[in-house]
Amino acid sequence: MAKLINIGFGNMVNTDKIISIISSDSAPAKRMVQRSKEQETLIDATQGRRTKSVIFTDSNKIILSALQPETLAGRFNGNATEVWDDTKE
After folding, report:
1. If you average pLDDT over residues 10-34, what whole number do you get?
2. Helix (H), strand (E) at residue 8
3. What is the pTM of this model?
């Protein structure tokens, strides 16, 4: 029962794969993003905008989003219309 959330600019992430969503402001988050970039496990979905959220997945990928963590959490919890459910097709 995979659901996809819009993480900005038409980019989608499977909700079953998300471990956590954090703000990009902290030094540890910045270090993890840099390490992921070096290991080539970083997915940048910001479309050139400022990174506001860092999404960690169960496959050790890190996804960057230009949306606030609160916005993504609301979408993740189903409080927005930007959630797609592939079982309803």
Report:
1. 96
2. strand 3-8
3. 0.86
